[in-house]
C-alpha cells in the first residue's frame, strides 16, 4: 500500500483551488495556547509561505468547533462536533465539516466519526464525504490509519490508496510534516488533521 498513488485527477472536496497536480510537502507548526490561543499554522516548503491557519477553542471560544482559514485569513472550512445526549452515549462521536460558498452559505462536505472511549481509541477513524466518493460501497470514503499522536499516520481512500501522510519533524513534536498526494484537496486534509489534533488534546483543544 505504501507505494499506492492516487490518480492526478483532482479530488475536490472543499475546492479545486487546493488540488495541486504535484505532490506537496507542508510543514505544520503548533502555536502555544498561552500566547496565541493555540491552533496551528501550515506553511509551504521551501518558501515558508502560509497556506492555512487552523483555530480551535482557544481562539474561537467554543469547544468542539474548529476553523480552517487560508493564508490571508479567509474562512474555508468550519468543523463542528455534534453534541447531545445521543452523541454522549454513542461509541462514535461525530464531526461535520462545512465549506462556505461565495455568499458565505455553509454546506456539509465531510463527516468524521470519533472513537469515544479508551478501548476504541486505537480503531481506525473513518470519514465520509458529501457527495460520496466510494460509490455507496460501505459507509465511509476515507480512513485514518496509524497513530496521530506519534505523528505517524496515513489517510487512505476506500480503495486503500494513499491520500496524505503525517510524518515526524526532526526536532520537536510541535513541528511535523504532511505529504499530500497529487490532485488531493489540501483544505480537506487539514480539516481532518484539525479534528485529529483536537481529539488527541493537542493545539486546538482547551
TrEMBL record:
InterPro entries: LOR, LOR_sf, Tubby-like_C. Transmembrane segments: none annotated. SUPFAM superfamilies: Tubby C-terminal domain-like (SSF54518). It comes from the Eukaryota. Signal peptide: none annotated. Belongs to the LOR family. PANTHER family: PROTEIN LURP-ONE-RELATED 6, PTHR31087. This is Protein LURP-one-related 6. It comes from Linum tenue.
